[in-house]
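YM 10:42: Aspartyl protease family protein sequence, as discussed on the call
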Amino acid sequence: MKKIIGAIFLLLLFGNLSFAQNRFVIQNKKQTDKIRFELINNLVVIPVEVNGVTLSFILDTGVSKPIIFNFLNMSDTLKIKETERMSLMGLGEGDSIQVYKSKNNVFKVGEAVKLNQDVYAVIDSNLNFGPRLGVSVHGILGFDLFKDLVVEINYSRQYVRLTEPEAYQYKVCRNCERLNIEFYNSKPYVNAKVKINKKTIPVTLLIDSGGSDALWLFEDKTLGITSGDVFFEDFLGHGLNGSVYGKRSKIERFALNNYAFKDINVAYPDSAYIKFARMFKGRNGSIGGSILKRFNTTIDYRNALITLKKNASFKEKFSHNKSGIELAHKGVQIVKEIKYDKEGVKVNDDDNYYSIIDFKKNYNIVLKPSYEIAELRKDSPAHRAGLKKGDVVIAINGKRAYELPLQELIHMFYGEDGKRIKLKIVRGGRETLVFNFQLEDAFK
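YM 10:58: structure's back
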């Protein structure tokens, strides 16, 4: 009898281990865990341990499988094996990218562990979203985590809470909206309404926490989804297959059930850059981080639900870059910093001793981040002033650029209409120039 009980116990044990290998499982008795994140340009960046190495990943509801960048630089450290070469398509006008598909990798997010995670490792070392964000980003994680666990994203307090579905209990929330979501190619979609040219239009939108804009709409004249006459051409973002360009405009109203926004920013990507996204014929666009950050969200794939509760950011104005400049991190630069050493000196004056402080000037040679103009909107204030793509920014309004995080520099370009900007730049690695312009609301 004891042998039979022991055999049953072993079967149960190995059965649980096998089950755990095929999904994320929270390794504690509470069956829940909280992970802090950084909110960078409306994107959630979380720590993810891959085969024992801690990396930074964007938490992206818009991707079906994890993707790792700079694979060739990290391949030995990550010990990725069992690979096969293949192609991936995404946003952008370029050709498909080459990746290695790897199996049986160990992924750990907080105390949530999966033992046999598939991952796509990008071969092209130039494909990297980190320079645009100003922080190191090693990859993107989406569907595999969301399908296994209930994921709460608390944008206001900047933490993600992961909970086993069986342990999650819904609470009565009178100030929440609970919406049904549907799936296509392992990506979540929600129904919403937009008002354009006084016409209310029902739309189906991808929930895209990996997009920093508020709203993308795909132009469709038959439905009345058009940019109208008031818009400007702009860089919209960087996808797996290259840059994405299109129009920026505003719409009268956007609504998710009873939550509504007026005079909201919208981008209309050019059809040449979204061929892959248009494969789902029912899709009309996507909801991005600039809207999602205004809510604390609970995403429950098993029950096909998303719960939204507005937070302190709900009433923030929708703004846009009024300079026309997109900055990106461009390696490091050598900076000569002044350092003052303080020394005490005794001085004899008519038999009276007193002390003075003597400061000696020394220099430290240090490495600091370098920022360049990666994109420049045609006919924008910065473009008319004479700035060019590739110019390296060394100072903004008297502040040394290398002393500030990239996102803080970019935030200066979202200021009030008419604000003066003074840029000191280096062009071609030699020439130092100064340019002045004023921020300009492109919708006026």
